[in-house]
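anyone seen this seq b4? input:
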Amino acid sequence: RMNGLIGQSNLFSVLNLLGCFALLWLVSVGRISLMVALPLAVLFCYALVLGGSRVVSVIYLMVMLLAFIQGWRVKSLKFPVFLLVFSIFFLLIKLPFVWLDNAIQDQLYVIGIMKEKHYGFDLFERGLTTSRLVEWPLAWRIFIDNLPWGVGPGGYASHSYEMHLRENILPLEGIWQHSHNSYLQVLIEFGLLGLGWAVFMGLLLLRTLQDAIYLEEPMPLIVLLTLLIYSFFLFLLWFMPFFVLAYWVRAAGEKSIVRP
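predicted toks r here
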C-alpha cells in the first residue's frame, strides 16, 4: 500500500472484501465445502492485510448488521453467523500476516525492489486520522460558494487548490482531483441539479435496500451496500464499471417486466 499503490490498494481491498462475502455465502448455502473455503479465506485475509484499507471495516460492520436483519426476516441466520465467525478469524490471523509482510519487505528491500520499509502497517494501525477530514469541509465550502450550478465537470481540482490557499492550509501535498466522496462530488460539480439527482437516486436506492432485505438471496443487497458505503470515501462511481454495476444491482430490486 505505502509504495505508490495507495488508491489502487483501496480498490484492491474492496474487491477482495466482495470475494469474501461471495465465499461465505457459497459456504452458507452448501455450494463450497469448508475444506475448500478455508485456504481461500486465509488468502482473502492476507489480501485485506496487504490492502490496508480502513473502509472495509465500516463496510463489513454494516453488511453484517443488515445480514442479521435480512436473516431474521427470512428465518435463516446461517450466513450472518458465517460473517461473524470470519471477522473473528481475521482478527486472530491478522498479526501473523503482518509479521509475514514485514519479512517479505525485508527481502524486497535487500534486492532493491522496495525503496523503503513500512513495518507493522496494517488495517487498524492508522486509527481514524485521514486527510479526508480536512478536505471534506473545504469541499462543502466549494459547493456553497458555487451555487446554484456548481463548478462543472472536472472543475474540482482548481477550486480545491484555491480553497487551500484561502484557508492557509499548507503544505499542499498535491492537488485533489476529486473530493473522495462520490455524493459530495455530484453536488460540487452540478450544484442544485446534482442535489436533485442525488436525492432522487437516494430514494430509489433506499427502496431497493428495503426490498432486498426480504430476499432469500442477500448478495445483491451486499454488493449494492458495499458500493454505496465505499462511495462515501472514494470517487468509486466515477469508475464506469462500478457506475454501471450499481445501476444493474439497482435494477435487480425491481419486479421483472418480462411475462411468461
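DSSP finds nine helices and no strands in the chain. The two ends are 51 Å apart (CA to CA). kinda curious what u guys think
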